[in-house]
Structure formats: structure tokens, C-alpha cells
Amino acid sequence: MKRDNIIGWVLSGLVLLFLAMDAGGKLIAPAQMIAYSPPLGIPGEPGLYQQLGLILAICALLYAVPRTAVLGAILLTGYLGGAVAMHWRVGSPLFSHTLFGVYLGVLAWGGLWFRDPRVRALIPIA
């Protein structure tokens, strides 16, 4: 049981590290990041990136707190689904760009599965 909790927090920590870097980048909204937005169909406005960064930061914080982790995982799944749809729409490379949100979502739910017995009861994989 302790081993599962450690595995869960390591997986969740990796997800949270990536999400924190992504949210931080969006909150800062550097010009180089904004330059890549038109091909994705996102307006090149720093305010929009800052709003996305704030939404992502809130979802990540909810995921990080054990009491609200399931809600955070659900919200992150929606956020990441939007990223997948956006990359799919513009024809980004499938395995490196388009499916990256899926990979991150699987890691997030996997980490939660290992660290939360309620999730293991809902999703009895093993």
C-alpha cells in the first residue's frame, strides 16, 4: 500500500511539474509562445494565454490537493481534451503533438489511481 502511494505521487508529481511549467509559461505569455498561436487558430493575444494559464493552474492545484484531486483530474481531462482537439484540427504530428494530452491524462489518472483507494475501487484494473 505504501509502495502504491509512492508510485502515485511520483506519477502525479511528474504531471504537476509539467502542468506548472506550462501554466507558468502561459501566465508569462512570452512573444515566442504567442508567435506559434495563429497556426493553431488561437488569437495571438497575451491576455488569452494568461487566462488559459490561470485555468490550467487552478486545475493543477485542485489535482494536487488530495481532497479535490478527483475534481482536478476531471477538469484536467477536459482541458487536455481541448488541446488534443486543437492539434488534431490543424494536422499536428499525431504521436508527438496531438496525442501528448492523452499521454499526460493517462499519467494523471494513473497517478491518482495509485494514490487514491476510491479511484482504485471505481476503476478496478488489478
Write a structural description.
- The chain has 126 residues and is mainly alpha-helical.
- It has one domain (2-122).
- 83% of the residues lie in helices and 0% in strands.
- The chain contains 8 helices and no strands.
- The chain has helices spanning 2-28, 31-35, 37-40, 46-64, 69-90, 94-98, 100-115, 117-122.
- Helix 4 runs antiparallel to helix 5.
Question: Quick summary of this structure?
Answer:
With 126 residues, the chain is mainly alpha-helical. The protein has 8 helices and no strands. The chain has helices at 2-28, 31-35, 37-40, 46-64, 69-90, 94-98, 100-115, 117-122.
Number of domains: 1
The major sheet is characterized as: none
For the residues shown, what is the average pLDDT? Answer: 94
Structural class: mainly alpha
Q: Tell me the span between the first and last alpha carbons.
A: 13 Å
Task: Pick out the low-confidence regions.
Answer: none
SS summary, helix count: 8
Share of helix, binned:
over 70%
Number of strands: 0
Radius of gyration (CA) equals: 16 Å
- Beta-strand residue fraction: under 5%
Quaternary structure type: single chain
Overall shape: elongated
H/E series: HHHHHHHH
Secondary structure topology:
Layout: H1 2-28, H2 31-35, H3 37-40, H4 46-64, H5 69-90, H6 94-98, H7 100-115, H8 117-122
Helix pairs in contact: 1-4, 1-7, 4-5, 5-7
